[in-house]
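Build the 3D complex.
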Amino acid sequence: MAKRLLSGGEAIAQAALEAGASVIAGYPTDSVSRLIESALRQTLKRNASGAHAQWTVNDKTTLGICAAASTSGFRCLAAFGQTGFSEVVQGITALSYAGIKGGLVVVVADEPSSDAFTANLDVRRICELAKIPIMDPATSTDAYNCVSAAFVLSERYSMPVVIHVSQDIDFSSAFFDIQSHTKAAARKGTFMENRKSLDVADLINEESQEGIDFTNESISDTDARLKEIAYKFSYKDTYAVYNRIYEFEQQYEGKHNSKRFASRDEEDDYPPSATDIRTGAASVHLDESNIKIGICVCGSCAPYAIEAIETLRREAHKSKVSTPYIRLLALGTPFPIPKRTLRRFLEGLNDILVIEEFSSFAEEELVKQCATNFLGPNVHGRFTDEVNYNYPVSFESMIMHIAAFIDKLLNVRPDKGFFTDTTEPDLSPVLNLGKHSSPPDSAKTLTPKQSRTLTGIARRLANPESIYTYNSDIPDRPPVLCSGCPHRASFYTITRALERLKISRDEIVISADVGCELLGNNPPLNFMDAYMGKGFSASLAQGFSLSLPPGFQDGKCIALLGDSSFFSTAIPSISNAVVNDIDITIVILDNETCAESGLQPTPASNGRTDIAEVLHSLGVHNVRVADPFEINNAVDACIKALRDTRPSAVVLTSKCARLIRSKKVTYINTNKCTGCRECITQLGCPAIFFDKDIKGRKSGDAGQAVIDINQCNGCRLCIHVCPSEAIRTMMHKDVAELMRQERSRLAEQLEDAANIDSDTADIEEGAADEINDMTEDMLDSAGLSFASGSLMLEETDSDDVAEEEEQRPKRHRRTSTAKIRKKTTQAEFGTLFGGKNAELRLNFEDEDSTKEDQDAKDAIEDDIEKTENDTEIQETLEEDAIEADDAESHAVDDPEISADAEDTETEDEASKEAADTDDAVDAVDDTADESDSDAK
Amino acid sequence: MIDILVAGVGGQGIQLASHMLCVLAMSKSWNAVCFDNSGLTEMGGAMTSHVRIADKGEKLYTSKISKGSADLILAFEPMEAARNLPYLAKDGKIITATSTIQPPQSSLDMCNYTSDEVIENLKTSLYTAIMHNLRAAGGKGKNMQYSKMFIVNEERICEGHGEPKGLLATILLAEAIHTECLPFQRNDMAHTIDMCVRPAFREANIDVMDTVLGLSPKKRSVETV
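Done.
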């Protein structure tokens, strides 16, 4: 046994392995990725003997594998996201009739109301339709425990059992005592042995059993089985433990009101009259001890409800407000509904509040129970407009709902309630309190009477008076495409291709599939018109193509697909386009991984399946393959595909940015940047931002773009975008070192601003030598610290390593001119990193420079301008050469050329730098001498 | 019970920090739960992780922190500290890093912020709220607990140890221990680093931790507000 921190998904995987699961499978979505990854890890480490875990290509495959393994006698766990589960409902339904042999647990993980574009399907409803039992655990501990119970249930009744895992469980981690080694359970016969008892034909012919026979081993009728399961959910401890009833007595502390309440049957007015049903137990004499309130919550709402009730009672006790008796039902097995548990819960209650996520499943069941059993309680909830439809449930909304409910109930009692306050509590803040609505600001304006109501207390708790708020605007931060993402290059490529074909954005329709490409919909790319869920982009494009309005014959319908969606669902619809000869262009963004859900492998990873070959065999006429970072090639490929009036395809292949950590980054030359913002408006790269305070030679007061080197991944896309060729690449460590030096230099200057002499200059030069003796250690530490962020990261791209090796022999050349180079970039970066630093330096200059110095400076600056003109010509020549290289083969800047280019820049920069330190003339001479001697 | 909100931008190592916090709690045999917002937000979205640690006997129900109840906010980015300010308890503390990560939308709108601006605004926000509370409390405010903010200059601390990106979690946690926001010691932290960080980066993390804890001769570069 070992104690481990496990997230909900990991805990379920572990529990499944401990329960003896042999097969664990799932298609990568972010809600199940941790589950399968954890199981894979355990099998790879050989901690789980006899178990097989795997990623599948789509959800149907998952279910097929698990169903077959289960009928062959193995315990299996199939994991689905919410939408994935709705895809396989058909298969699940068949299974519940056909029967299984080894336990089959189906984990459905969902994210209610999340940002991930998923429809909010209620899994409980699907299970009701498919007639399979579902467990809805409240916490990750419950989820861990209920897995083995679910396996037993599944085997006993020969039907799959669903475990619903909400976001709260899936993403929250806690400590678990786990077995360090697990062993798969013994199989229950082979398929050959089992097939007779599982034959569907037999099931149809077999007559359904009459009544419930709890001793019968072979219960085959689904409804009868469900009835028995409902009974077990109510009474058998293994399952009933997930349907908890908590009782909160009227007294907060001390004595319990242990008086057992009379059951409904013993009361006189049975069956109750119509008015009684409507008004609850209104005929019963009301005093404090007689009001009994029930609250029913479902699944992962339970912890919030407990915490809310406890907090409310504690605070009410403090403010000397009494609370009534509250009974809480935490429903953990919604289908088949444990009727007896519900009846036990309903007994003697006056009013019930139902709070749940998704649809009103539990509320309906409670209403049914009350109606069919002539039980008195009023059921409050969404039907009575007392609970809003906002979910996921939070502590704040829970406590507000409960407090308002209690207050409302107590106030409608004529003069017998706890409060003499006759004003009805205002429910509007409760109904409006949702995830996106602003919290009620009436908290501060509670009247003394109001603040003595539970609503007042709850409002204080949910929206504390002392709350801190930020007094300025907070920009939204939605998820974005990573820096260096090949998708961004692909979008840029398609835009270029459309421009060259003179097709405007209004004439095309772009449909997207699930995955990272959805993030291309964020501004400035806005690269998506239609999205309907996984696997629909190719078919949507066909529909749009067929329904192009007159006059749009040249219009294009583009389907964007990730490599994983291509294999999972898109192939049939592409085949349809070929068969019916519909003019669409399929753009496959192949990043060799399922990036969105956490870098899982796809069939195209490691070249196991060739996407282009698949498209060829499907009969797509025009299949082009290109690297999106080789812009010209990729644009040509796109143009050729778009021109084709038959179904055509472009495969844009480049490895996901999260799998690559480039050691080269780009930086912007402050002297060349014109502040046109092209790089920002065209790309929307998170590494590029705009600084209004930077003043450059060409940008003037317009401000300049800045690249954050800690974010840049060196994809060099911005180099292609920049119209003024201001962006260059450089080794990350060099830039970082220069930044660091620049900062420390500024700090030093600030510290002893008064006396700068030649000593400091010497120190700087010493430091410059150090940089160029950059050792392997530095390299390693830089790489390591990168990698510590993500476990999946490869240390470096193989290309980059090759570059490194190329550069190494040439390094001595660069070292020779290093001193000057260093000074250059120091000057450049001084203005680059933040307006504040630049200001500081300016101030410092003002302080230091006397009038005499100023004259000398002016003279020097004139000289500098002359030299600059010369060097610029040289530079442009060299850059043309580089440009040519780039255009041909996406080649890296030749280090030699760039180094030389730097050198030419250096001299004027160095002189600038020197001007700063008032030793201008000397320094210029010095550097000139140095470079001469070094060259020799 | 200590409620800690770890906030930052997806990809900064927020999950690592929250898991380290849980392991820290474990090293004292306290109970801990955490809730990570994972999924698409990992791609540079605003991300939070809720960590609740409880001494023996205290019960943990939910894993999420409600507004106005976080005892400590660990912010990996100053604007994320601002975004999550409503979660801060009356006497809660903030520990924030200084370097910013700009959302592309604000680059498009030309409204990029600087770290100094945000931190200055944070200070005034805290100050006005505290003053408001003091006034509201009248003369009784003398024993009142105030919130505090600690600003960590992670780039300075990391000098010579590597990139701040991979070390930020350790820096912020070590700072929390140093300022006694968390009741743990250096040994607990060192043990946590052994448990959570891959062996290759262990040394850099330990070095950085010692720098922050003031055990190494290097300057701490932390500003207290």
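The first helix of chain A runs from residue 8 to 18.
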